[in-house]
Specification:
Elements: E1 4-7, H1 17-24, E2 31-36, H2 48-55, E3 62-67, H3 75-81, E4 85-89, H4 96-105, E5 109-114, E6 132-136, H5 151-164, E7 170-174, H6 182-188, E8 192-195, H7 197-200, H8 205-216
Helix pairs in contact: 2-3, 6-8
Length: 221
């Protein structure tokens, strides 16, 4: 199956981001950018200014995951910074369809992100309005967490919902993804895999990306 690997910049060395971007440029399909505000999640990471600065050092699509309160207020800033994909949390946005349309109107792909404890059924009224669903396989807020296996059946459930409705919606998974867990989520229906420490925690980032890609190369949904 065709799976895209998205290294997460959260696990990179923030003191030398341009150099870190060069280490994954040849092998990554996307670059995952975790935006945290210290309110929706208990951590603060980056905003549009850092993303705009990184944009000059990478040709990869920028996949911005907004783990922030009131995401609709900040969508224009991330579009201006060069985001190609923007996901917002269902738990944080009461006007989800409107926010997703804002992202699409700005020329980016729109994603709905859901926490591990949020059921697949919560997507039923909004999934038609997005281009991808980002399933968190750890509780958001920090990198390097252990993969939560109960998320796998939820991915299967979301995949069935997409198929039943005849939608062209991808499933992205973020949290604890490595060469061991990647085949589990790919077999369940995920085609976009976010990997943080499994890539940036290795001396050879290109080889790390390819090890994950090779692990899912023979998986059939």
């Amino acid at each position: 199956m065709n799976v895209q690997i998205a290294p997460s910049l959260l696990s990179a060395d923030f003191s030398r981001l341009a150099d870190e971007l060069r280490t994954i440029e040849a092998n990554a399909d996307l670059l995952h950018l975790d935006v945290m505000d210290g309110h929706f999640v208990p951590n603060i990471t980056m905003g549009p200014a850092i993303i705009k600065a990184c944009r000059a050092h990478s040709t990869k699509p920028f996949d911005c995951h907004l783990m922030i309160s009131e995401p609709q207020r900040y969508i224009p800033g991330f579009l201006d910074a060069g985001a190609n994909l923007i996901s917002i949390h269902l738990e944080a946005e009461p006007h989800l369809q409107r926010a997703l349309q804002m992202i699409r109107d700005g020329g980016a792909k729109a994603g709905i992100a859901i926490n591990p404890a949020t059921p697949a059924e919560s997507l039923s009224t909004a999934i038609e309005f997005c281009d991808y669903v980002l399933v968190m396989s750890v509780n958001p807020g920090f990198g390097g967490q252990k993969f939560l296996e109960p998320v796998v059946p939820k991915i299967r459930q979301i995949s069935r919902l997409i198929q039943e409705r005849g939608l062209s919606v991808a499933i992205e998974v973020d949290g604890g993804i490595d060469a061991h867990t990647a085949p589990l989520v790919a077999a369940a229906g995920a085609s976009m895999l976010v990997a943080g420490s499994a890539v940036f925690g290795k001396p050879d980032r290109g080889a790390a990306i390819e090890s994950i890609r090779n692990a899912v190369s023979s998986v059939a949904i």
